């Protein structure tokens, strides 16, 4: 039989990359941060300035409409969430475990932060209780390795100047809050095919050539990264 | 590709500026300037033409070339000044770029980077080309736009550029356009509609990449209104030739289904999923598993905010049931994955497709929950998986841990549980903090149903508790909370309090306070311990404690320790008083709730203190003089002063001063109290002791309902010729018959009880909607004079029932109840000894019923003389856990025996707020007859505004309000209730059933218990706590539905005509009807048992059958309610 419930399928609530100084480098929310909870959070957050911008755009949250005042509240909520996450994560030495619980009430109860610290950057995944704690840690590793391959030795500046490409890589791994692909070969193939096609179109050879080159693109990437995981 | 490829100088400067910004304000200023720049770039081409070109050596002239409608040029230059002037030459800019890149990249790369930076600078030097002419610049523009938005500023002026770029012919630019739209457009933004056409085109594109980019955009950008526009295209792509498109299309289809289940029907989606599970590409299979998992687990919640659509048209979702038959397929897939049948590029650190393994294992865990048949099919593969995953690498542990989680959720299997426990012990003893965390989490999951496994890890748990890592500590505290039992409650409460003291995290504090309150109420070994623990809690986090906890505490102290064998009624009071007197001496003012409690206790019982009453009065007065008290606190303090002054007989000047001050209070009630007190002090000093008697808070207020004191007045009036009062015609004499003739002459108030208490007390109370039956309060007749029992009253009832359960189990069930002094099967076990018991559960002791103390040796068992500090902690912690080998401290054992002998209902369970009789302080009325029964003991703690909406005058010499005082003396006291609610059928046989520790193994006693409950109109109860309605809106319900971890389904073959009838029956269990959807024959209801939420979704099936699903936060309650509802539905 069927029954109904209001469904938000995502188990990953958001992905945030923030540097050691609290500057966000990538922010992707898969679920609204509720403004009710965030006002509570904002009240408890000492010294969090709301920012001078009057209107702040809402997060990229699919599904469901919301009025303009809600948008502003959500934009601020999102900023509050980022600040909060950074504050929480930054004060933990690397020897501690990579989990933080109950620190972002905006996403609802049971959401935990799973993060990894790479040199100057924190990669933070906010996930619900269903997700695998250890599995996500390795998924972050896959994400970072994919970035590293795409940018040939990724550094913090790459993430800023090519934030669209970072989004592209992430989109190949996580889609709509669920894990789409974990095989690094598939991820890299998708990205490199895109680059090939792009270059082809720049040379004016058009779409047809790009499409026909897909097969060889796949081959070459497999050659290139074939021994990657060994 | 390198970072510098399309980098222009001002973006570079921007990032640098942001990076160096010292404050949020500075950052905001830079961003605002960036917004100005971006606007200028957007509008740039038309205005810059002919001005900025060719002046390679100068600064960017277009920057200064502002439009008045954007911002003044002067402002623009000033704000940007430092940056613009710093780079008068581009050579310098290139140098800077090289500097930064040198630091950021390794030396090998720096040459290329610098070259590219120079190239990009040259591009700028040539003047900004029109944005529309250069896709590259458009892309950079969007990247900058996203950056601005990411920092929380509005960049909506540039969104149109993103929409434009989405139509680009280059895949990279197209994708960037979509990504920017996805990142920036709010759900209601009209630009989303502009994209629909483009999306349709791209979905139909022959190019694989364009189709897959469009699918990503669909899942991000489509709103419910647009679903029909793209649904067909997306469905087609499910059969696409490319795996990359197929896996994205099923994600997108799932997303569309969530948004609009009418267009993308659930069964269709399920059919697609089932087909794609067998896809030839493992990637597609893995993606399909993600969706199946999210459907099965129902994680997260999506409440539709789009109010324009019918909110009740909620997503029709198949539960786990339609996937039940997949268990064999999933097992087979998992087996193949384990055996390396997948292509080797799915390996990760030589582990075959670990994420696919994890997903399948998690799905199995959901499908096998409480289902023996499904679970049996999994046992073998789970054990195999666990064995193979033991490779000593992180991802191997991840798979192993998923196995552990699944083993704890499916139908229990002893061998697997032992294996899981082994894995947990490896995790928990690991040096790796992540594994420790996993271990503690896993242990918490397993001890819920199988407490015996906790015993092996005593030392590890203690170590985790002392770890500096707060996450680990918190997780361990969570574990401790789940492990709490009457033996270790003191230790655990101490630990929680200690943690509460050190943490500053608001949410954690709130959580801790709730937990401490819960375990203290449930497992308190003695009243005096409870008083101390709760007082400590008030002291540390008074602001977060619910007020009824304070009321419970006051009630407990007021009722004294009468149940104690020693018979020293005052012991607990004396203890409390001494504690509070010490508090008075502290310089810092305690929290409000602690101050209220302290003021009341001292006001009532300060005579028990070592210190003189005068000294205490002076101290309280000094405290009252401090500014900043809440109005109700002032009243508490003043009332305490008054009572003590009445006892001492003298009023110290400082007290007089305080009273005098408060006569000018803005609070009228307080003012009146003080004025009356002053009046009495001045004119009727001798009455003080009578008005404010010592230790009378538990006495009934006696009032003369016959108003005999008016007799003389009436006689005089009659003698003077007044007409005598004639009662109204007895046309309703039928009604009076039931009351008996003796009542007929009495005033026409309905002053007799509504019903004889023929049923056990708490049952009756529930029937009367929260009004204690023994009270005899004619609630309706008195109208406004008597406050109706409010929500707080309901609260009381619930707590009272809890107390009854743990406080005094009925003798009938007492025999079956496992209490500490049960014979010890392993008398030889000392503290350090490993448990000699095998872990497998012997048939005579199913986990569910295993008593705490059984495995513990008698208190006299020889303990080693010396223990390390940690061992001592471990012993304290693991006392009472089967197999722990730690004997319970003797005192606790004694307590456990004394508990059932209590002759009073656990007092802390009855907060005065529930007292339906807001009696004024004892009036000089005829001496009160002894209170008929403890339960009926009327108690007035302090009649302040908090408790009752009716203000009373503290010093009233006679009851001004005859109605309020009427019943007690006019009516013979109702038949005393039995001192022990012995025949109570309701309390569960196992007093700890509510603990969550025994939870619900599948042969849980709870289901049977619920069935055994009286089938009449009684409410559902769990562990003695009744189910109370919870008022929720439909969206709120939806939200909670997803976050409830425990689910159970049920069905009943009733003969229900319609939804209303079904809802009616379900409401009788105590649930609150949230919404009934007649169109689909569905209804949702909500309720709480104590703090645990339960949600019920019912649906009318064919032939009057009812299917329902219960979700909740505690599995035990959920199971119980399902059984209860089934019985109830079937019997009606």
UniProtKB/TrEMBL annotation, chain A:
Domain AP complex mu/sigma subunit: 76-197
InterPro entries: AP_complex_ssu, AP_mu_sigma_su, APS3, Clathrin_sm-chain_CS, Longin-like_dom_sf
BP GO annotations: Golgi to vacuole transport; intracellular protein transport
CC annotations in GO: AP-3 adaptor complex; cytoplasmic vesicle membrane; Golgi apparatus
Keywords: Cytoplasmic vesicle, Golgi apparatus, Membrane, Protein transport, Transport
Membrane topology, from the record: Peripheral membrane protein
UniProt xrefs under SUPFAM superfamilies: SNARE-like
Pfam families referenced in this protein's UniProt entry, alphabetically: Clat_adaptor_s
Record's subcellular location: Cytoplasmic vesicle membrane; Golgi apparatus
Family, per entry: Belongs to the adaptor complexes small subunit family.
PANTHER family linked to this entry: ADAPTOR COMPLEXES SMALL SUBUNIT FAMILY
Protein name from the UniProt record: AP complex mu/sigma subunit domain-containing protein
Species, as recorded: Corethron hystrix
TrEMBL record, chain B:
Keyword Transmembrane helix: no
Short name of one Pfam family: AP4E_app_platf
Keyword entries, A-Z: Membrane, Protein transport, Transport
One Gene Ontology cellular component: membrane coat
Region (Disordered): 44-87, 747-793, 816-1022
Superkingdom classification of source: Eukaryota
Domain AP-4 complex subunit epsilon-1 C-terminal: 1028-1130
Protein's name in the database: AP-4 complex subunit epsilon-1 C-terminal domain-containing protein
């Amino acid at each position: 039989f069927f029954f109904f419930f209001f469904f938000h399928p995502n188990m990953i609530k958001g992905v945030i990359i923030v540097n050691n100084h609290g500057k966000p480098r990538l922010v992707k929310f898969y679920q609204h941060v509720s403004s009710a909870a965030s006002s509570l959070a904002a009240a408890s957050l000492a010294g969090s300035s709301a920012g001078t911008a009057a209107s702040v755009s809402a997060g990229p949250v699919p599904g469901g409409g919301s009025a303009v005042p809600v948008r502003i509240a959500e934009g601020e909520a999102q900023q509050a969430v980022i600040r909060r996450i950074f504050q929480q994560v930054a004060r933990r030495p690397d020897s501690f475990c990579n989990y933080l619980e109950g620190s972002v009430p905006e996403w609802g109860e049971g959401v935990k932060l799973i993060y990894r610290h790479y040199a100057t950057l924190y990669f933070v995944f906010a996930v619900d209780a269903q997700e695998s704690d250890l599995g996500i840690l390795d998924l972050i590793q896959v994400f970072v390795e994919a970035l590293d391959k795409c940018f040939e030795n990724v550094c913090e500046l790459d993430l800023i100047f090519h934030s669209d490409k970072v989004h592209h890589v992430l989109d190949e791994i996580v889609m709509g809050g669920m894990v789409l692909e974990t095989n690094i070969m598939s991820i890299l193939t998708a990205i490199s095919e895109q680059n090939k096609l792009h270059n082809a179109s720049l040379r004016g050879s058009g779409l047809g050539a790009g499409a026909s080159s897909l097969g060889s693109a796949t081959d070459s990437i497999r050659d290139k990264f074939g021994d990657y995981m060994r | 590709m390198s970072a510098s490829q399309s980098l222009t100088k001002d973006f570079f400067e921007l990032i640098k500026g942001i990076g160096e910004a010292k404050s949020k304000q500075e950052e905001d200023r830079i961003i605002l300037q960036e917004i100005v720049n971006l606007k200028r770039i957007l509008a740039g081409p038309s205005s810059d033409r002919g001005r900025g070109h060719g002046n390679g050596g100068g600064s960017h002239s277009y920057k200064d070339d502002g439009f008045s409608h954007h911002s003044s040029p002067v402002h623009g230059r000033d704000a940007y000044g430092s940056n613009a002037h710093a780079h008068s030459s581009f050579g310098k800019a290139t140098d800077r770029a090289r500097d930064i890149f040198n630091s950021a990249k390794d030396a090998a790369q720096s040459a290329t980077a610098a070259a590219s930076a120079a190239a990009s600078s040259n591009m700028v030097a040539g003047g900004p080309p029109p944005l529309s002419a250069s896709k590259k610049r458009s892309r950079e523009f969007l990247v900058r736009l996203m950056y601005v938005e990411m920092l929380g500023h509005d960049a909506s002026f540039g969104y149109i550029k993103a929409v434009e770029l989405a139509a680009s012919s280059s895949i990279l630019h197209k994708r960037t356009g979509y990504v920017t739209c996805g990142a920036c457009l709010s759900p209601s933004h009209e630009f989303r509609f502009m994209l629909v056409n483009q999306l349709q085109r791209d979905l139909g594109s022959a190019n694989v990449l364009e189709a897959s980019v469009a699918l990503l955009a669909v899942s991000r950008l489509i709103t419910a209104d647009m679903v029909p526009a793209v649904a067909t295209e997306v469905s087609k792509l499910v059969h696409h030739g490319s795996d990359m498109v197929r896996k994205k299309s099923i994600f997108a289809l799932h997303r569309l289904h969530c948004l609009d289940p009418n267009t993308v029907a659930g069964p269709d989606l399920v059919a697609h999923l089932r087909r794609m599970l067998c896809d030839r590409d493992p990637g597609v299979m893995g993606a399909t598993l993600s969706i199946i998992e999210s459907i099965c687990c129902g994680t997260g919640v999506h409440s539709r905010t789009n109010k324009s659509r019918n909110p009740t048209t909620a997503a029709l979702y198949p539960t786990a049931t339609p996937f039940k038959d997949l268990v064999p397929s999933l097992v087979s897939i998992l087996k193949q994955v384990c055996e390396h049948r997948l292509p080797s590029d799915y390996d990760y650190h030589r582990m075959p497709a670990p994420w696919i393994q994890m997903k399948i294992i998690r799905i199995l865990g959901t499908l096998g929950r409480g289902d023996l048949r499904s679970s049996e099919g999994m046992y073998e593969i789970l054990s195999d998986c666990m064995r193979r995953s033991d490779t000593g690498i992180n991802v191997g542990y991840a798979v192993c841990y998923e196995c552990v989680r699944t083993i704890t959720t499916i139908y229990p299997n002893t061998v697997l549980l032992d294996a899981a426990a082994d894995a947990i012990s490896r995790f928990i003893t690991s040096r790796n903090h992540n594994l420790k965390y996993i271990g503690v989490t896993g242990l918490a999951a397993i001890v819920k149903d199988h407490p015996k496994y906790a015993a092996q890890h005593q030392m590890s748990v203690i170590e985790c508790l002392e770890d500096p890592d707060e996450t680990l500590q918190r997780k361990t505290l969570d574990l401790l909370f789940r492990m709490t039992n009457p033996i270790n409650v003191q230790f655990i409460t101490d630990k929680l309090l200690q943690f509460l003291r050190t943490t500053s995290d608001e949410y954690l504090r709130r959580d801790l306070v709730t937990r401490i309150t819960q375990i203290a109420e449930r497992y308190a070994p003695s009243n005096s311990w409870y008083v101390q623990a709760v007082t400590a809690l008030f002291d540390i986090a008074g602001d977060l404690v619910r007020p009824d906890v304070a009321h419970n505490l006051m009630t407990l102290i007021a009722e004294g320790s009468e149940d104690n064998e020693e018979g020293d009624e005052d012991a607990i009071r004396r203890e409390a008083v001494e504690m509070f007197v010490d508090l008075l001496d502290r310089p810092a003012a305690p929290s409000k709730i602690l101050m209220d409690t302290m003021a009341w206790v001292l006001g009532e019982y300060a005579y028990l203190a070592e210190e003189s009453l005068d000294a205490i009065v002076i101290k309280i007065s000094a405290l009252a003089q401090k500014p900043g008290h809440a109005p109700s606190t002032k009243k508490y303090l003043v009332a305490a002063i008054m009572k003590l002054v009445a006892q001492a007989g003298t009023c110290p000047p400082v007290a007089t001063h305080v009273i005098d001050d408060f006569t000018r209070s803005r609070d009228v009630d307080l003012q009146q109290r003080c004025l009356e007190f002053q009046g009495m002090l001045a004119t009727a000093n001798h009455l003080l002791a009578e008005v404010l008697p010592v230790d009378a808070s538990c006495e009934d207020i006696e009032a003369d309902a016959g108003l005999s004191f008016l007799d003389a007045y009436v006689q005089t009036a009659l003698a003077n010729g007044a007409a005598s009062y004639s009662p109204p015609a007895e046309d309703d004499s039928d009604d009076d018959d039931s009351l008996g003739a003796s009542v007929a002459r009495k005033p026409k108030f309905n002053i007799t009880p509504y019903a004889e208490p023929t049923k056990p007390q708490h049952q009756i109370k529930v029937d009367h909607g929260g009004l204690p039956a023994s009270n005899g309060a004619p609630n309706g007749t008195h109208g406004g004079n008597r406050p109706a029992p409010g929500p707080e009253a309901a609260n009381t009832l619930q707590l009272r029932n809890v107390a009854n359960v743990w406080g005094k189990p009925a003798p009938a069930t007492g025999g079956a109840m496992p209490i500490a002094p049960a014979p010890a099967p392993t008398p030889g076990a000392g503290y350090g000894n490993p448990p000699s018991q095998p872990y497998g559960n012997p048939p005579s002791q199913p986990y569910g019923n295993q008593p705490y103390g059984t495995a513990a040796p008698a208190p006299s068992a020889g303990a080693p003389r010396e223990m390390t500090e940690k061992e001592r902690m471990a012993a304290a912690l693991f006392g009472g856990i089967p197999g722990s080998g730690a004997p319970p401290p003797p005192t606790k054992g004694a307590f456990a025996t004394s508990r059932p002998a209590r002759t009073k209902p656990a007092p802390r369970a009855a907060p005065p707020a529930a007292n339906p009789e807001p009696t004024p302080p004892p009036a000089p009325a005829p001496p009160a007859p002894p209170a008929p029964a403890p339960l009926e003991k009327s108690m007035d703690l302090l009649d302040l505004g908090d408790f009752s909406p009716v203000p009373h005058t503290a010093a009233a010499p006679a009851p001004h309000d005859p109605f309020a005082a009427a019943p007690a003396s006019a009516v013979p006291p109702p038949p005393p209730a039995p001192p022990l609610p012995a025949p109570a059928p309701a309390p569960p046989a196992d007093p700890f059933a509510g603990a969550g520790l025994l939870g619900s193994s599948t042969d849980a006693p709870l289901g049977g218990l619920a069935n055994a409950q009286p089938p009449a109109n009684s409410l559902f109860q769990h562990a003695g706590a009744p189910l109370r309605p919870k008022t929720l809106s439909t969206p709120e319900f939806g939200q909670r539905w997803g976050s409830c971890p425990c689910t159970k389904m049920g069905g009943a073959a009733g003969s229900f005509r319609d939804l209303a009838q079904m809802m009616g029956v379900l409401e009788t269990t105590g649930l609150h009807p949230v919404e009934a959807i007649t169109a689909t024959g569905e209804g949702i209801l909500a309720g709480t048992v104590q703090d645990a939420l339960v949600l019920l979704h019912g649906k009318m099936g064919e032939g009057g059958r009812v299917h329902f699903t219960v979700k909740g936060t505690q599995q035990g309650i959920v199971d119980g309610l399902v059984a209860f509802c089934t019985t109830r539905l079937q019997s009606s």
